[in-house]
Design goal:
Layout (H helix, E strand, L loop, with lengths): L11 H30 L25 H12 L5 E2 L12 E4 L2 E5 L13 E5 L2 E4 L5 H11 L25 E5 L15 E5 L26 H11 L6 H9 L26 E2 L3 E2 L29 E7 L4 H6 L4 E2 L18 E4 L19 E3 L8 E2 L3 E3 L4
Parallel strand pairs: 4-11, 10-14
Antiparallel strand pairs: 1-3, 2-5, 3-4, 5-15, 6-7, 8-9, 10-12, 12-13
Amino acid sequence: MKGTVTSPPQDSQSIFRRYRYIFAVVLLLTVAGVAIAAFKFWPVNQTVPVVIADANSNAYCDPGISSVQTQHIDNLVKQGAPPVIDRSPSPGAAPDGMVWIPAGEFSMGSEEPAFTDARPIHRVKLNGFWMDKTEITNAEFERFVNATGYVTIAERKPRAEDFPGVPSESLVAGSVVFSPPSSAVPLDDHLQWWRYVPGANWRHPQGPKSDIKGFEKHPVVHIAYADALAFAEWAGKRLPTEAEFEWAARGGLDRMKYTWGDKFRPDEKFCANSFQGHFPDKNTAEDGFASTSPVGSFEPNGFGLFDMAGNVWEWNVDWYDANYYADLAQSGTATDPQGPMQSNDPTEPGVKKRVQKGGSYLCTDQYCSRYMPGGRGKGEPDTGTNHLGFRLVKDAKIN
């Protein structure tokens, strides 16, 4: 970004939240007013009419036929039906840097107590597709930028019309950076370890004084959803659906806790880049990394994919809806689900979010363990962080 800012900018996250809180208060007062008015004018002895279905109508009749398939799927899930993997050979030579993810059917979701939005477990059937072996790296993203002149969201100055009332000098390009506190803090306030850093972007992951020299093979970060789409269009690929990502992450395993099995450290070996120590103030980096790691630093999963757990979160194309799995499970086996039509996050009503999967180097059982394949992440499309990147998929050519 060109130009020099002389006055200290306000925290962007605080700016976002300020307007969200104002909106929430106004909405709450409005709802309260409507409720009071309804109570005041509703007749005390008013009775609610009871609707009795006509005996000749099937509007309220459920003969049970439509539920047979759903019950069959429920039984498969309860009985532990294994994944079905199409062992047919891939449709031709693999595109550079990609592996073939076979077609198949699996049980999607998680029974982890904390993952309430990942239930119920339901059956999903998918066609085969190509997928990047690794997350997109700094080197790959730099080639894209050099070829197209693309400027990421984090490198653009926020528009005044998007933040009415905010002083122009406070609208400074930047991004959200993990900034560990000096000592232990309560885990109910993530602003204790996240802050908006002016000048932070994919070229400067920690802020303007940092760069990516020597980090060419690390995953690119500070990527907003639109940035990932732009790269995908240039590369002739697309972002994966949530179902595709989970199927690929499991690598043929059946409802295992992790992408490599049920034990976190088999034979005392680390299998992913995650957080060790005391979150968020002290990362002991026992796995060798306190931040991102070069892609492919850990063993691949059963489908030959690297870092499908940990390292950086990855964008999926789906809107995030906390109730989507419950809705999807009603129709039996879902074939190539594309996600809900709109976003729904009860924790922040009205805030649109896309699905993120895979977790990051900050994942820990102390706070967030959604690097498990059944875990679901979420994020606002216009917000990048220094633990968020992406990888792409490509449909098979049908002759």
